[in-house]
Amino acid sequence: MKDQPSRKRWTSTKTIRTLVIILLVLACFFLGKQVDWLLTPVQQFFSIVGFPIVLAGVLYYLMNPLVDRLETKYHIRRTWTIIALFVIILGLIIWGIVAIIPTIRTQTLAIINEWPKYWQNASSEVNHWLNDPKLSALRDQVDQWNTDTSKLLNGKVTKYLTGTVSSITSVVSTVTTVIIGLITMPFILFYLLKDGHQLPKYLVKFIPDKGRTSFLQMLTEINTQVSNYIRGQLTVAFFVAVMFAIGYWVIGLKFALTLGIAAGILNLIPYLGSFLAMVPSVVIAMVISPWMLVKVLIVFAIEQTIEGRVISPLVLGSSLAIHPVTILIVLLAAGKIFGLLGVIFGIPGYAILKVLITHLFTWYRHQSGLYEADD
User: Fold this and answer.
1) Which of 213, 231, 193, 264 is nearest to 348 (CA)?
2) With contact defined as beta carbons under 8 Å apart, do 352 and 220 qualify?
3) Four-CA torsion 184, 188, 194, 195, nearest 10 degrees
4) CB 253 within 8 A of CB 214
5) Is residue 311 a contact partner of residue 239, using CB atoms and an 8 Å limit?
6) Nearest-5° angle of CA 98, CA 81, CA 49?
7) Mean of the pLDDT values across residues 106-124?
């Protein structure tokens, strides 16, 4: 009789649902790798149309709440609202090109040109700090790491130099894809904002009457999960960029604007982005002075405190209801399979899969009748 509660816990609906979700997600990754020959044409297709669609989708989730509010509360036609927003965005883009982009371009080129010197000087500073005999083992590890890093970078440079023709072709292809995407994206975004709210009504026509309510509920949950994540992450990233840029400017760190914007962009990678953004700031600060390094670390500590205690709870909350360990596992798996795009879009992709599998399991539970005792 003592084993009864334990057996019931392991056979409960919640436990089985969790195990099924994990197994099906792993199965999707495994099958995707096994039939990559079949997915190659699909991948090539989405490499062309994916960029404008994804960009339009992100902007849709940012702009649609305002369009909906103006239509429902003030009875302004969606078309006029969309056109007005497009004009405002175009004005902001022109202002950014004139006022901000030149500064970012100048600072970025300076960082790229001076980075080898910064890295070498920072390594020398670290070795100087590690001259203490008590830290000899750690110094040897740092020297080995620097040697391995140099060999890796030299190998990458040699590889790209020997493949100059293919690299140029790849760059031209990428630039062409980006230009085509930027041209087509506004048209996709316009029709998403204009008619996107009618998409569930169109899709539900293909679902039997008995399942339409559940299908609409599933679409609503997916839309809520994705919209909360996109709006939340971009809002937090904006505040992170502003805080870092202001903090670096206050302490007098070089390239404050560019480093702040880079920190905001990297913050789109959950948990890891802020620490990755610290690498160039710490390296540059080490070259300037030990006191500058201390000030950079203070800025980082203040930013992390404000973000973790104020901004993220207010903006994100627990909207996705995903455990931090699960987030890290998804990031590792998605990054390994899909690269940088997997790291950026792995979490919303997992949230969508979670909703789909949860509804599929709920349907199976009611159809099979195997879990009536749990209800």
Assistant:
1) 231
2) no
3) 150
4) no
5) yes
6) 70
7) 86
In this prediction, residue 35 carries a pLDDT of 62
CA dist list (Å): 242 to 264, 277, 315:
8, 14, 16
Token pair belonging to 355 = 């909703």
CA angle (126, 128, 133) in 5-degree steps: 105
Per-residue model confidence as pLDDT tens digits over 8-18: 454 455 666 66
The single-letter code of the amino acid at 297 is L
pLDDT band at 164 (very low <50, low <70, confident <90, very high): very low
Find all residues with CB under 8 Å of 158, minimum gap 6, and list them.
none
- Sequence-separated (6 or more) residues with CB below 8 Å from residue 130: 136, 138, 139, 142
- Residue reference for tokens 């085509």: 180
Measure the CA–CA gap between 202 and 104, rounded to whole angstroms: 44
Q: In one letter, which amino acid is 331?
A: L
Residues 6+ apart with CB under 8 A from 39: 32
- For the entire predicted model, the pTM comes to 0.75
CB 308 within 8 A of CB 270: no
145: Cβ contacts below 8 Å, ≥ 6 apart: none
**Domain spans, the chain:** 43-125+177-196, 197-366
d(Cα 104, Cα 265) in Å, to the nearest integer? Answer: 14
- How far is residue 49's CA from residue 130's CA, in Å, rounded to a whole number? 51
